[in-house]
Amino acid sequence: MPLTDIQIRNTKADIKPRKLADSEGLYLYVSTTGSKSWRLDYSYFGKRKTLTFGTYPTLSLAEARDQMRESKKRLAEGLDPSLAKKRQQLAAKAAAGNTFGAIADEFIDKLRRDKRAEPTIVKNEWMLKSLSKKLAPYPITQITARDVLDVLNRIERSGRVESALATRSAIGRVFRYAIATARAESDPTSALRGALQRHVPISHAALISREGMGGLMRAIYGYEGWPSLVGVLKMQAFCFARPGETRTMEWAELDLDKAIWTIPAAKTKMRREHQVPLSQQALAVIEDMKVLFGDKPHVFPSMMSGKKLLSENSMNSALRRMGVGIAEHTAHGFRSSASTILNESGEFSADAIEAQLAHLDTRAVRRIYNRSTYWEERVRMMQWWADLLDEMRLKVAN
Length: 398
Fold this sequence. Notes:
Elements: H1 5-10, E1 18-21, E2 26-30, E3 36-44, E4 47-56, H2 61-76, H3 81-97, H4 100-113, H5 118-131, H6 145-157, H7 161-180, H8 210-222, H9 227-239, H10 243-247, E5 254-255, E6 260-263, E7 274-277, H11 280-293, H12 314-321, H13 333-345, H14 350-356, H15 364-369, H16 375-395
Antiparallel strand pairs: 1-2, 2-3, 3-4, 5-6, 6-7
Helix pairs in contact: 4-5, 4-7, 5-7, 6-7, 8-16, 9-11, 14-16
């Protein structure tokens, strides 16, 4: 007769192991210590085997019967249920180790191996390891669209709409990397398109008058913040490179004898090496930094404990503390300031200005045949620009 729960509960240990038959080959194995486990004896291609499902009462009688029937179904299909169980256990173990955090770390390491720009790597680290920290301990196969949306909604509620959208994309890249490496089968972020507030892009605010730039330079020279932060703001004004390039400047990129800063292709937006002529004023900033930080790899290191680089928003935050509003000027705005004033001056060709800004000529044919870097003109232009900044800074003060 089939077993009952009452009969199973009342069964005690004996001096020898016991087998209590249920139905269809399922039985309860009672050891001499009193532990009870569900088992099924079966034959697979003439070889006698025993499959253990679990222990009672963790696995109930009804659950044991369900597993027994599922195992018999596999046998009927020509499959070995013991092998199927081992595969399930291995898959579960692998899934437990393949957490979102572990795979995100692998993905970031891959970005480094692929020689992606350092600002790109830092931004992905911030989104995946800080903003998405809640997902880190969970097996990637168990993370749902709801889990991801909870993380993104928290970012969105803090007012960082653009960061929420960018983080969704970053999380999606981790899932697609997991799919490509056979550790996930789907990307839950694809179901979240349209779930977040749409970001309305705005242009970078910039001061484009000589008077405005004069006032800004006085504010920078009078700022009493970290020396590296003051230095990076001056360098951003003199060289008007992209803020991430300036912020991550390394000593190895500088040839002070030739007055050239060579930005590696991996750091540039266009993935092309870009050289910047250094004015006397820019060289003076670098010499000041060399006295303070010449023993460090970066010219403008962070002065916060445990951090190597100034944060992405450090320059903008400093501008806000100087009283320069977000609608007035940003770190990226130095590029627009220089472009506007240089073009209005009539002193230099538009091509030289565009070359110094490292803009890619969208006219494909011209880009192929016009490979001039306008270097001599750019050297004169960068010194002219630095001298003008000094003139504007000192003019109103006198």
